[in-house]
Write a structure and sequence with these properties.
2 domains; elongated; Rossmann fold; 6-stranded parallel beta sheet; alpha/beta; 11% strand; 49% helix
Length: 245
Amino acid sequence: MSAITFDMIGVLTSIPQPEVLLFEKERREYRIFELLVEKYDITRPQFDKAVESTFSTIEFERENRCFDYGIARITHLLLTNLSLVPEYATRIMIEQLFNDSIFNLQLAPREGSYAVLEHLKREGFKLGLIVNTLFSSGDAFREFVIINLGFQSIFDSMVFSNEIGFLKPHSLIFDASMRELSIDNPQEILHIGDNPKTDIIGAKEANLKTGFFQNRRHRLPDSLKPNLEICDLIELPDLISHFDW
């Protein structure tokens, strides 16, 4: 094994609280409505209906095709549902409100995460991130990971779904990570994640080795067997050193 890839939220960082997620969603929608109502003749019920239609379409595409709209397409779909064709500057301002979401979730690095990554790096492993970006762009995640989380240049590869066009568990996002890590054999990569569907099933179908990070967000089905399970990142180096790969 020569590389380890990680999901980010819930593995390398804390988990956002439900009330924080709800507040951020409502804040973002209010700010977008506020921006549009200053320039266009729309009502809040019209806006709410367009938002509901927009995200119903997005969720359908995500569930059925693993397709990631990305914030530019989300913005375009919302404006289309409102029958609006705003100037470029307004579109960019709406996209920025989506981008800001990752910075507003009050996430913090898990205790010891940087030390573990640094140790694995010293041991010669290539390190990567594979992230479903959802409502922020890859660029926003890069800024967040590097600046806010302080990981700087620890990762050899950072792959984000909005830039690939597909979300985990689609194999293309794992394939993209392999290319960035310059690894031809997927069995040389261990992927660590906390979501049984997107991380474990997805990585298995892409022929990567898998590690399940246990936390309160997701329960691992009895029928799904990853290569290893951890409750704390600090366990990872020792488990890897003793595992018969």
